[in-house]
Amino acid sequence: MKVLFIGGIKSGKSLNAEKYIQKISKAKPVYLATTEFIDDETKQRIQQHQKQRSDNFITVEEALVLSDEIEKHEKTAVLVECLSVWVNNMLYHEKSFEDMQEEINKVMMQERDVVFVINDVSCGVIPENALARKFVDVNGKIAQLVAAECDEVYHVVAGIATKIK
Is 12 annotated as a binding residue? Predict the structure, then answer.
């Protein structure tokens, strides 16, 4: 089963995804953390997420090649947190949308329970900066690609997850 939680920043999508995967997983689920770029703010966010998930997950880190890491964990469900950070990483490493699409397709072809988290960045104004516009465009396309292939999709607002698919 593939499931997507999408929502704005600080909408509660990560917590909802964590609770969901703990319900469906027969063993301790894997938390696949995609964060690569570390500054003081990012470190604080990582610490908040670590505290939130406590010892309820096996944490692994992978910034680019999600399919290989997910394949290693064939006996348990995997939470990918978060695809927006992964898109950022891929753009930073000058990967094309086609590279991202290929990687997502490899993940979707695996017969594993995977829960994805992605930011909904489509509700704001069009950014003035070209790189920010590219990120918004690619993140939106990846969200559409993943949502189309997922069995369930939840939109999260103010901590409340609403099933939309």
Answer: yes
Assign residue 56 the CATH number of its domain. 3.40.50.300
Return the pLDDT at 132: 87
Q: Is 163 annotated to bind ligand?
A: no
- Helix (H/G/I), strand (E/B), else coil: 142: helix
By the 10 Å C-beta count (0-12 exposed, 13-18 middle, 19+ buried), 9 is classed as: exposed
> What pLDDT, on the 0 to 100 scale, is given for residue 77?
96
Number of domains in the chain: 1
Range of the domain at 141: 2-163
Per DSSP, the three-state class of 61 is strand
Q: What is the pTM of this model?
A: 0.91
Which residue stretches of the chain have pLDDT < 50? none
Instruction: Please state, in angstroms and rounded to a whole number, the distance separating the CA atoms of residues 85 and 68.
Output: 18
- The residues that are catalytic are 49
